[in-house]
Amino acid sequence: MKKLFVVLLLISAFYSCNKNNPETVNINEKDIASFQLSMDSIIADTTKIISTELPILIDSARSILIYEVKIMGISEKSFGKLNSYSKDGGYSTNYITNLIFEEVPLNSKNTLTDLSLNIWSYSFQEEIYNKTGKKFIFYTITDSDSNKNNALDYVDIKSFYISDIDGTSFSKVTKNNENFSEGKYISPLNRYYFKTIEETDKYNILATKHFYYIDFNKEPYQIEEYFPLDILKK
Predict the structure, then answer these.
(1) Cα dihedral sign for 153, 155, 159, 164?
(2) Contact 183, 174 (CB under 8 A)
(3) Which helix (H) or strand (E) holds 207?
(4) DSSP three-state, residue 32
(5) Contact criterion met (CB below 8 Å) for 206 and 200
(6) How far, in Å, CA of 228 to CA of 112, rounded?
(7) Residues 6+ apart with CB under 8 A from 186
(8) What span, in angstroms and rounded, lies between the C-alpha atoms of 97 and 111?
(9) pLDDT, tens only, 149-182
(10) What is the DSSP letter of 42?
């Protein structure tokens, strides 16, 4: 009887724990499109306030400034602390929905994207620039409501994006169902290695790790998936 009680207690704890975790739902292109909002729709929404702060100098050679576009509901009293400078030279916030790039000498401005996203972090890749002379910005972004709770928040899948230093050539690197986990640049190889995690069940217990690298020796750069554990299967 005591053993049965312990088993029932463990089962109860298991379901109680997972009840608090949002379910992961496989998403496709239609799912992404169904939740993505355009900047035009945000501007037209009278319940939202669009704001920005003083610019950040991202490229001193070309005098490129970045303005962070932020949104709040008209009923909210304050944004709180919206950004902070991270140790790796990137800016991180939970409230950035878009970026405006201004190249001062040319008197030109452009937005990063036409969509309203949740940009968690972005950083200029100085190591890659020192190695290749090419200037890239890496982003961690939530671009879809992967857990179907009608919000772009911290429990949704985070994707990895790249753009040029002026915000052009903005491209998604990770696949739709894979959550960006971590990455590192290995300078001698001129490659950026990164890992993603794909949840394979609705309770987020089973997960598949995927490994990739971006080869910056190629023009344009190429993304390759590789399998470090393959040798163990022989």
Answers:
(1) positive
(2) no
(3) strand 207-215
(4) helix
(5) yes
(6) 34
(7) 192, 193
(8) 11
(9) 777 778 889 999 999 999 999 999 999 889 999 9
(10) H
